[in-house]
């Protein structure tokens, strides 16, 4: 039940037809008696800067979830951003502080890292390779750096994109050993596919499977299919792995903490969600 005391969390993006967050958050709020609601709000890019400012003038607004195509443009509209958001170059959550300031953070990478840790893989001191330096790859790189990886290798077909991420990592994590250029997975403890490869039938594999050690932990970000051809191949090699939807569910407890709501576990959210 939505009342005059309900805290409003906007889910901002365009278009909204594929939004899944309300089907996870709202059942959780209802079950736990939390007086809050997530509402999808479709906002075109040309209207977004003005709309975001007006949205946070509402007396019952609590925060916003940010998705495409607004994650990058949000950064310039905030009063404060986390280191993760600065390294990622994008933001997917905004909270209104008690003094009226807009505070932004990025949780895509946090969800990935929480999932890896919960599966028993050590991140601190590890060597990690990320294929794909776009939005999600940059977010994962930021969170792996925060979690204490020893070496981080970045590969992207767009050299400019990869170099820009390298520069941000070196600025905020000067002690981190970070390189750009190769997608060779040999010798890495953690390997991540943060490219779109695997979303469409017939896509080539993003990384040379034959050079991945069976002891390597492999992460996937593609959400359209749980076991992608890439994960099928690494599973056959004996690798432990994480599916794309794990990153989605693992980041929601971090969101709840950011919004100062009672938190929960990814497993609990999976049992409550009404994704159909």
Describe the structure.
The protein is an alpha/beta fold. It contains nine helices and twelve strands. The protein has helices at residues 22-31, 48-55, 83-88, 108-118, 135-146, 159-172, 229-236, 244-258, 266-272, and strands at 7-13, 36-42, 61-66, 80-81, 93-96, 102-105, 127-131, 151-155, 177-180, 190-193, 217-220, 241-242. Strands 2-1-3-5-6-4 form a six-stranded mixed beta sheet. A six-stranded parallel beta sheet has the order 9-8-7-10-11-12, sandwiched between helices. A hairpin with a 5-residue loop joins strand 5 (93-96) and strand 6. Helix 4 (108-118) crosses helix 5 and helix 8 crosses helix 9 (266-272). The longest helix is centred in the last third of the chain and has 15 residues, at 244-258. The model has no long low-confidence stretch (mean pLDDT 94).
Structural class by helix and strand composition: alpha/beta
Compute the separation of the termini in Å.
Answer: 21 Å
- Strand coverage percent: 15-25%
Q: What order do the helices and strands follow? A: EHEHEEHEEHEHEHEEEHEHH
The backbone outline, from C-alpha atoms, is globular
Strand tally: 12
Largest sheet: 6 strands, mixed
The averaged pLDDT comes out at 94
Number of helices: 9
Unreliably modeled segments: none
Strand order of the largest sheet: 2-1-3-5-6-4
Helicity, in percent? 25-40%
- Any idea what the radius of gyration is? 19 Å
